[in-house]
Amino acid sequence: MQSESPLFIQRTTREGAAAMAGSAAPAGSSAAGSPAAREPAGRTLPAGQALLSVRGLKKVYHTDGGDIEAVRNLTFDLARGELACLVGPSGSGKTTLLKCIAGLLGTTEGEVLLDGARVTGPPKKMAVVFQEYGRSLFPWLRVAENVELPLKNAGMPKAERKARVAEALEAVGLAAVPRSYPWQLSGGIQQRVAIARAVAYQPEVLLMDEPFAAVDAQTRADLEDLVRRLWKDLGMTVLFVTHDIDESIYLGGRVIILSSSPTVVQEDLLIDLPDERDQLETRSLPRFTELRHHVYEEIQRAKRGHRPAGTAEPA
Ligand code: ADP
Ligand code: MG
Cα–Cα distances in Å, from 241 out to 2, 34, 170, 179, 224? Predict the structure, then answer.
C-alpha cells in the first residue's frame, strides 16, 4: 500500500494545532504533500500555548562499552488536555524519552518544559505509570496504602488523602480490595492499583509507558476505556507509549511515530475519529482501518531505517 495520497492522512501541523483541541478535524485539510506535511519534527504550538514542550531533545548513554545515542533529536508540544500516543520500533528510545520528560533522566542536549518552566527533576504536577507494575508497587503496603503514599509524601491532610484514595480506587473498579496486598492480586489488577495511585495524585500530566503490555486482551480493553474516562473526567494531559498500533489509534487524538534509533519524530499524525470511542464500533470504522494501515506502514518503514527528509544519517 502506498500510504501517501488516497487516504488523506492528516499530519498535525503548526496550523492544525487549533484543531487538536476540538474533536474531529476535517479530514484531508492538510493532507500529505503540502509543505507543512513534510515538517520532520513533531507538532509545535505558538509560545505560551503548550503545557508540555520537548525541544531538540537528545540523549546519549555513556557506557563502558561506548556511547549509545538513544534519542537523536525530538521536538513536539502537547496542549493542555491532550491525549497523545507515542509509537515506534523497539529500542527507539520511547522509555528514555519518557524518563527525560519525567525528570528522572537528564538530557544530553535540548530541554523539556512544563508550563514554560524547564524540567530538571520530577515535577510535582506529573505522574508516571511504568510497564513493570510488579516493581512499582510496594509489596509490604496494602493497596490503599500504596495509593496513599504519594499523597502522604506531598503532605496532604489525612481526611483529604482518604477521600482521594477511595475515589481513585472506585474509579478503577477496585473499591473492594483496599486491604489486599499487591502480590495477592492478578497482574491486571495490580496495574489498576498503579493507575489509581497516579490518578489519586491528580497530576496535570500523566505519562504511561506501555502500561497494559502484560495484561490480557479483555482487561486491556477495559483499562483503555478507563484511561479515556479518567482523562476526560480529570482534564489531564496524557502521553501514552504503546507498541500496539490499534491501541495508539483507539486511545487519543494524535499518534507521534518515532523513527528507529537514532530517533527523530517520523510523523505526527492526527487521529480524526469521532470523539466518542467504543471498543467495537470505533474499531470497525473504515477510517480506523485506514489509520491502522497507515501507522503500520510507517512503523515498518521506520524499522527498515527510513528517516524523514532532512534528518537522514550522514553517509
Ligand atoms: P524503547 O523504550 O523504545 O524500547 P529505550 O528507551 O528503552 O527504547 O532504549 C533506547 C536505546 O537506549 C536502546 O538502544 C537501549 O539499549 C539504550 N538504553 C536504554 N537504557 C539504557 C541505559 N540505562 N544505559 C545504556 N543504554 C540504554
Ligand atoms: Mg520501552
Answer: 26, 28, 25, 31, 12
Ligand 2 (ion): which residues have CB within 5 A? 94-95
The rounded Å distance from CA 6 to ligand 2 centre is 33
Distance (Å, rounded) from C-alpha 226 to C-alpha 109? 36
Instruction: Give 117-123's long-range contacts (Cβ < 8 A, gap of 24+).
Output: 123/205
At 245, the pLDDT band (50, 70, 90 cuts) reads very high
Question: Which residue puts its alpha carbon closest to atom 25 of ligand 1?
Answer: 61
C-alpha R_g of the chain: 19
Q: Which helix (H) or strand (E) holds 227?
A: helix 217-234
Ligand 1 contact, 95 CB (< 6 A): yes
pLDDT per position as a tens digit, 125-145: 899 998 876 678 999 999 999
Greatest alpha-carbon span in the chain: 62
Ligand that comes closest to the CA of residue 93 = 1
Architecture of domain 17-125+203-303: 3-Layer(aba) Sandwich (3.40)
Task: Report the separation in Å between the CA atom of 6 and the middle of ligand 1, taken as the mean of its atom positions.
Answer: 36
Distances (CA, A) of 102 to 32, 124, 268: 33, 10, 21
Pairing outcome for strands 66-79 and 263-270 = parallel
Q: Under a CB-based contact definition with an 8 Å cutoff, are residues 9 and 296 in contact? A: no
Q: Whole-prediction pTM value?
A: 0.87
Residue 118 to residue 97: CA distance in whole angstroms:
15
In the chain, domain spans: 17-125+203-303
Q: Is the CB of 60 under 6 A from ligand 1?
A: no
Asked if residue 61 has its Cβ within 6 Å of ligand 1, the reply is yes
